[in-house]
Write a structure and sequence with these properties.
26% of the residues lie in helices and 26% in strands. The chain is of the alpha/beta class and 233 residues long. The chain has a seven-stranded mixed sheet. Strands 8-9-10-11-14-15 form a six-stranded mixed sheet, with no helix packed on it. Strands 12-13 form a two-stranded antiparallel ribbon. Helix 6 packs antiparallel against helix 7. The protein is globular, with a radius of gyration of 16 Å. The structure holds zinc ion. Zinc ion binds next to loops.
Length: 233
C-alpha cells in the first residue's frame, strides 16, 4: 500500500491506484477510517506497525465493499478495537438492504458487503470519534457519514466527492474513473451533502478515490456547480 502523510494527523493509504483508507493520529493511537477492499488487512496492519502505533479504533464511512471489505479480518487481528459506524451502516453490513420509508426510493447502487463484526459504537451526526466529528453525508449511499478533524480542518468525506480524474460530487460521472458515480444512489441528496460539507470550510479534502486536496474550496465549488448543472440543466 502506498502511504502519504497530509499535515500532522492524517495518513492516506492507497491500494492499487485509487482505493484509499486513512489513519488518523490520536494521543492514544490511530483511528482507521475505512478498511479498503477485502484482503487489505495485513497491509494496513503493517503500516500501523511501521508507524509504531496501535490501531485503537476503526470507523467506517459506508458499507460499500471497497470501504468495509477488510473489517472482519482487521477486527480479528485487533481484539478489543472499537468499531464505530452509523446504525444505517450496521444494518447494511447485516445484509438488510431495504430502504426506509423516509428515504428517496431510488435503487441502491454499488457493491454492498455483509460483515459479521458488530459495531461497538453506533454513531450519530455530532458525535466524536477521537478528534473527528461525525457529519451526515448521505447521497452516494443512504448510510454514508463523513469525519471532520476539529484540530486542523481535514475532512474525510468517504465517496461524497471523488478527486480521481477530477473533483466531482458523487453521482456526477468522470469518465476516466466512473466507478463512484456508477455506485451512487441519489444525486440530489449527494448534492445537498456536498453543499453541507463545503460549508464546513475544510482545510483538506480526503476521499475514497483520488488524491487528497489541500485548500479544496475552489475545487469543491466547481464540483458543486457541475452537479447543479447536471441536475437542473
Ligand atoms: Zn462507495
Amino acid at each position: 500500500m502506498k502511504l502519504r502523510q497530509h499535515g500532522q494527523n492524517l495518513w492516506q493509504l492507497t491500494r492499487l491506484w485509487a482505493f484509499n483508507c486513512y489513519l488518523v493520529q490520536e494521543a492514544d493511537g490511530l483511528t482507521l477510517v475505512d478498511t479498503n477492499m477485502s484482503g487489505s488487512g495485513a497491509a494496513i496492519l503493517r503500516v500501523a506497525q511501521r508507524m509504531g502505533q496501535p490501531i485503537s479504533r476503526i470507523a467506517l464511512t459506508h458499507a460499500h465493499a471497497d470501504h468495509a471489505g477488510s473489517l472482519d479480518e482487521l477486527a480479528a487481528e485487533l481484539p478489543g478495537v472499537e468499531v464505530a459506524l452509523a446504525a444505517r451502516t450496521a444494518a447494511f453490513l447485516r445484509g438488510e438492504l431495504e430502504l426506509q420509508a423516509d428515504e428517496p426510493q431510488a435503487p441502491l447502487r454499488g457493491g454492498f458487503v455483509t460483515r459479521t463484526t458488530p459495531a461497538s459504537r453506533l454513531l450519530q451526526p455530532g458525535d466524536s470519534v477521537g478528534s473527528l466529528r461525525v457529519v451526515a453525508a448521505p447521497g452516494h449511499t443512504p448510510d454514508q457519514i463523513a469525519f471532520f478533524d476539529e484540530r486542523d480542518g481535514s475532512l474525510i468525506a468517504g465517496d461524497a466527492f471523488q478527486t480521481q480524474a477530477g473533483t466531482a460530487v458523487a453521482g456526477v460521472t468522470r469518465w476516466l474513473f466512473p466507478f463512484p458515480a456508477l455506485a451512487t444512489w441519489h444525486l440530489p441528496t449527494a448534492l445537498q451533502t456536498a453543499v453541507a460539507l463545503r460549508a464546513l470550510n475544510p482545510s483538506r479534502l480526503a476521499v475514497g478515490h483520488g488524491r487528497v486536496l489541500a485548500n479544496p474550496a475552489a475545487a469543491m465549488d466547481r464540483a458543486i456547480q457541475a452537479a447543479e448543472a447536471r441536475l437542473h440543466g
